[in-house]
Amino acid sequence: MNPTAKGISEDWLSVWIGLLVFVLALGMLAGTDVLGWVVTTSVWTDLSQALNPVSKAYSALGGVGALVATYVALLVVMTAGAAALKADLARFALGFTAVFWIGYLSWIAGSYANFAVTTPADMQRFGITWSLKLTNEGGFILALAAGLVVGNFFPRFAAWMKEAVRPELYIKTAIVLLGGFLGIIAATQPVLAKDVMLRGFAAIIEAYLIYWAVVYFVARKWFGFSREWAAPLASGISICGVSAAIATGGAIRARPIVPIMVASLVVIFAVVELLVLPFAANAFLSHEPMVAAAWMGLAVKTDGAAVASGAIAESLILASNAAEGVNYVKGWILGTATTVKVFIDIFIGIWAFVLAYIWTNHIEVRAAGDKAKIGEIWERFPKFIIGYVLTFLVVLLLAYGAQPATTAKVRAAMGEANTFRVIFFIMTFFTIGVMSNFRKLWEEGIGKLAAVYVVCLFGFVIWVGLVISWVFFGGVKPPLAAS
Amino acid sequence: MEQPKVGEEMRKMPVEPLLPVEKKLIVGSLVLGFVLLVILIFWTRSLPTGAG
Q1: Considering the domain boundaries, does residue B49 fall inside one?
Q2: Residue B44 vs residue A137, higher pLDDT
């Protein structure tokens, strides 16, 4: 591998991979079930019953056959993607193999009935007397835990698979696919979908204008950080850990170590939030599901952890409500958390430009040729959002007001695409865990940075996020599922 | 490759007082943020909710 070779960005790659799966899934509209072999996992007590191809048309494959087919197909596509990234292909393929299998085995374990079952009727059906009631999406937590074990106790193994430890690539691909899934949901409830989007604007205001200003002030005034550290830190804590910290670091011409340290810190705290906030949301906000959803999008930093928190919160809250006889349509909590997070991401480029303008004109005044350029807004725009919006709009156009038969086909197609989305989520959880080497970060002396993070996150980010979520989403409920 | 001890850098970090432009950025952001939030609250309250 040529270490200086530069391929396409992970951002663009996620768009192409997501669109490839999306287009193949839409083959169902032409009567061709191209992706029905992808593996899906049911809640189980008998392992031989756990796995199945998502479509009955491929039932001859069996569960293990579907799992192997899914692995081989993803290995081929992702390795081709790694070639576009100019990554080391052999190392990527080996690393991806580890990421896929450890992640998916965690997912299967998480679907074990004693972990996943949520209702007394299902406990009776599976012949069990207790359950942790984590839903089968508790498998995400197990994948994260497996990643944390690898990242913190097996550093050589983590380094060996490093080429495929790309949570940003996996989550962005998942978000592109999520667009189609949310499109079908929005097509059935367009007024509510529009409402959620309008309320989602509050997230942009909060993240950029309120969180950022307060974190920057706290870091500068209370903790005595220099501007070089305070600005990326404020962006990392307020907007979106990795991409915002890096964009801000670039905008103010910080040394590369600064956004890298900030991004590492944000990932660590995002893991903590991911393990705590969805459960807190279920405990205190199960009767306000959309407040909980917006809260996940606002309070949890990094795209991966925010959307993943939305997924866990959704499964927990839907299960809690189902136990009380209230059955909400699946997808709205996850969709709202994602909408809020994506809305925040959209403005990273503009914010980086604003900061670059202020820094180069007023703080570290530069020569005319070295000042902020308008083209930087596009350069820093998160491209995966294009894929997300595209899949959302295509499905909305196909399904909105269409004949029931067409809507059913689009729904089935998005169901298959969504199965891939879950697999990309699983790999996101696992790789976030692998990247979270707590000990290494502590050894590098990030105590003071972490102190700012703790003060800001627990001092106001979480609480202001909760208040704003309540103000804008309080009383807004997902539609009820048809009984 | 650059390998500074971040902890040491934190301890030795020189004090950089807030410049007027930074103060303007902080105060301006907060004021604009609160104004926009209030406008958005009134706007969303004036619309019928599509909650199911």
Answers
A1: no
A2: B44
Rounded CA-CA distance A379/A84 in Å is 19
Side chain identity at B20, as an amino acid letter?
Answer: P
Residue B13 within a domain: no
Residue A321 pLDDT > 90: yes
Domain carrying residue B31: 19-44
**Which residues from A are below 8 Å from B40, CB to CB?**
199, 201-202, 205, 472
Beta bridge pairs of residue A40: A52
Q: Which B residues, 6 through 35, put their C-beta within 8 Å of a C-beta on chain A?
A: 6-8, 10, 13-16, 18-19, 21-22, 25-27, 29-30, 32-34
CB A164 within 8 A of CB A89: no
Contact A116, A44 (CB under 8 A): no
ipTM of the complex: 0.89
Q: Looking at the 3D structure of chain B, how many domains does it have?
A: 1
CA A168, CA A177: separation in Å to the nearest integer?
Answer: 14
pTM of the model: 0.80
3-class secondary-structure state, position B43: helix
Domain ranges of chain A: 91-473
In a domain, residue B35? The reply is yes
Lookup: tokens for A280 = 């807190």
Closest-CA residue of chain B to A207 = B33
Question: Which two tokens mark A399?
Answer: 């399904």
A327 — alpha (psi -120 to 50), left (phi > 0) or beta?
A: beta
Sole residue written with tokens 């287009």: A23
According to DSSP, the residues that pair with A328 across neighbouring strands are A480
d(C-alpha A431, C-alpha A401), whole Å: 40
For A383, phi and psi rounded to 5 degrees? -70, -25
- Do B37 and A206 make contact, defined as CB atoms within 8 angstroms? yes
Distance CA A61, CA A211 (A): 51
- What's the rounded Cα separation, in Å, for the pair A248 and A240? 11
pLDDT of residue A369: 66
Range A408-437 average pLDDT: 91
φ and ψ of A477, to 5 deg: -120, 150
Residues whose CB is less than 8 angstroms from the CB of residue A427 and which lie 6 or more positions away in sequence, other chains included: A99, A100, A103, A143, A167, A170
Give DSSP secondary structure letters for A273-300.
Answer: HHHHHHHHHHHHHTT-HHHHHHHHHHHS
